[in-house]
Amino acid sequence: MHPFLVNFLATTEHKLWVFWYISKMCWALARRGITHDLSKYSSEEEPGFRKLLPQLKDSDYGSEKYKELLKLLTPVLAHHYECNRHHAEHHSNGFFDMNEIDKIEALCDWRAATRRFSNGNLKDSIEKNRERYGYDIRQTISLWEVAKEARLVPPTSEILEGWSRKKQETTNRRDQARGDRDPERN
Question: When comparing pLDDT for 18 and 121, which is higher?
């Protein structure tokens, strides 16, 4: 067989396997979409969410009013977090114990939640959740890049540029703390 054909067939077989595994990932995410927040229909959660959801809609995400309403939902949220692994609170080490599928579901959840708030904005949610969950600027940029790749938001270069500056400043401070003062040094 001609070497070109051997290479073509091997590459095509590889591409088909990659497609197969990506399809499996897509189905994993689709299952998450179907089962997302099913516990909100349970007797443990539904009455609390029914009572407070209208008030949550009238609050700004992350505001003091929002935080006070969450306190009123403490027992409901404890059950909800226990049943839903896309919440950082589900895991003993929070966001850092979440796998990538959990993070993608969380990101989609945050995007959907922005539709409930008058000030809803995924960039702000990612930033506020960085403070809430303690992930770093690299994770912030990664979440934003995934959101753009998935077309959850329109591409906005100025937001990414601001985060890139913060990432560079953080890297510079870390390097200085270690004594790596020469920027040319790897």
Answer: 18
